[in-house]
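Hi there,

I know you've been waiting on this one. I reran it after we fixed the sequence typo, so this is the corrected version. Both the input and the resulting structure follow.
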Amino acid sequence: MSLFRWLTGKRRHRAMAPALLVVGLFLIGGIYSIAAPPNNATASNARSALIEEGKNIFLRGCSSCHGLNAEGGSIAPSLIGVGAASVDFQVATGRMPMGDMSVQAMRKKPVYNAQEIAALAAYVASLAPGPAIPTEEQLDYERDGNVAEGGELFRTNCAMCHNAAAQGGALTAGKYAPTLMGVEPVHIYEAMITGPQAMPVFGDRAITPEEKLSIIKWVKSVESEGNFAGASLGKVGPVTEGLVAWVVGIGALIAIAVWLATKAR
């Protein structure tokens, strides 16, 4: 009662209102911190929901080839341990799903939207550890990449398949290395760490993350450069240039010879 009488006596004091406000805010904050669920629990629930969504998409659109548990089948490989990066590369570039598994997958318009692709990647990543999708910070090639170094690395490790100008090239058994023009940086990075189809895996010991960014920066510099010397002829090398020279040159000589013969009559 003595505390109550003291508070009653001080209720008209001008400092009482601010003091009560502060006490009330502390009480509200304390109650909220006790009653509200932890942030990590909320994030865990969201992750679980994303994985469940991805599983449903997988069962509808992928399990007929890759198996109900992604264990693989007679026409499609297992997805256990391939990681989210592999799923994002294959699905976001439109290579998967595909109807005929006997031919090389081509880049085309994706079947699924970004949310569905993220869900699929999360589900496959939950099955076993594997390469993760690189973050925006990891892909800052403008800051961390070096064009000159990237060109040297590309010519050493990539040009024998993708052509010295990253235009793509033919491989054995009817396969080919696709052009890198117009490819998103995240997908170039994912291809290096997952090794899709005939491409080898370039782990961080073979090509460091910084060197990967240099390669991406060089590819983007090639993509944006102009054809200052005239027609590029696809930038596929001397074979095309020689073919054009022979066809145009010899064709012109034949035309001139025919014209001279006609005039001589």
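Quick highlight: DSSP finds twelve helices and two strands in the chain.

Best,
R. S.
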